Amino acid sequence: MAKRAVLEQVTLAEQYGDCGPLDQIPAGVVPSLDVGGLNVRNAGAEHVEVLIEFDFDLSTPREEFCGITAAFRLVYRMRKMREVSEQRDFAAKVAVVDAWSYWRSYLTNTMTLMGLQPLHLPPEPPAELEGSAREAFDISIEAARKAEEKAARKNG
Does residue 3 surpass a pLDDT of 80? Predict the structure, then answer.
């Protein structure tokens, strides 16, 4: 795992929220939290940038009633990470934890502004989010690989 990573900057990169009419909340809605996207890139010799997307849904087995998404850009001062496994571990174990308090605050405020009862999230991310983050990271790596292959076929 990367040593001496110093979080220098956190910005809200993207946000989205959509909710049905509050007087039509279906019975049996269940809240769901997930990491929807996770990308890591070396940004120069001494910085690493992580883009992490958190997703929240209120849904029943048949329909989604409410969805809130926010992507945060975290910039760390640290050495480059060359190995994909090192990037995956860092993003899932460090970046998710670092972004969690920003996500908690964003989600609580957004739910309040939408007229929903805010969800009280724990101070630390739930353990299952690490697995979700690893899966999101692997999907982003595969998508980047396919895009590179497509570009190579087009150009050559």
Answer: no
Residue 39, SS3? strand
Percent of the chain with pLDDT over 90: 57
pLDDT digits (tens, 9 = 90+) for 100-140: 999 999 999 999 999 888 888 899 999 889 899 999 999 98
Q: What is the Cα–Cα distance from 108 to 53, expressed in whole angstroms?
A: 16
Q: pTM score > 0.85 for this model?
A: yes
Can you tell me the distance from the alpha carbon of 104 to that of 101, in angstroms, rounded to the nearest whole number?
5
DSSP string, 48-77: EEEEEEEEEEEE-SS-EEEEEEEEEEEEEE
How many Å apart are CA 58 and CA 1, to the nearest integer? Answer: 35
Cβ 31 vs Cβ 66: under 8 Å = no
The DSSP output letter for 117 is P
Report CA torsion sign: 35, 75, 109, 70. Answer: negative
**Residue (of 92, 99, 89, 91) closest to 124 by Cα position:** 99
